[in-house]
Amino acid sequence: MYLNKINLFLVISICLVFFFLTYFDVKSQELKIVDGDTIHLNSEKIRFTGIDTPELKQTCIKDNEVIQCGKKAKDLLIKRIGNSKVNCIKEGKDRYGRILAECFIENISLSSYLVRNGYAFAYRKYSQKFIPDEDFARINKNGMWSMTFEFPWEYRKKN
Question: Thinking of the domain 52-152, which architecture would CATH place it in?
Fold first, then answer.
C-alpha cells in the first residue's frame, strides 16, 4: 500500500511538471515590431545583428514613384512574423543598450528573410553572414534592389 502511494505521488508529480513545462512553452509573447530590424520581445529591446534596414521615414524611387521603403521593410517583417512565436539567439548589446540577436521563426532567420527579399542589407561593418543573401536579392532585383535608394547608413548620416 505504501509503495502505491509513492507511485501515485510520482505519477502526479511528473504530470504536474509536464503541465507546467507545456504551459510556459505555449504562453503568448509580448511582441512589438518597431521597424525592420528592431523588435521589443517580452519587454526586451532587440536589434537584429548583421543587417541594416531602411529607416521608417526613408523613401526610395521606383518608376518615378516614391515608395516608403522603410515602412515596407517593417510591414514585410510584420507579415512574416504573423502570429508565430519568435525565438532569438542573443549575441551581445549595442551602445544603446539594445540586445543584439538573430531571431527566428520555425528555424528560419528573420534577418536572412529580410535581406533575401531586398528590404535589408548585409551590415558588412559588423558581419559577413548575410552577404550571400544580399547577393541573391541584388541579382534578382528583389525589393529595394529594383529601386533607386540610399543605403540606410548613408541616409542616417544625412538626416
Answer: Beta Barrel (2.40)
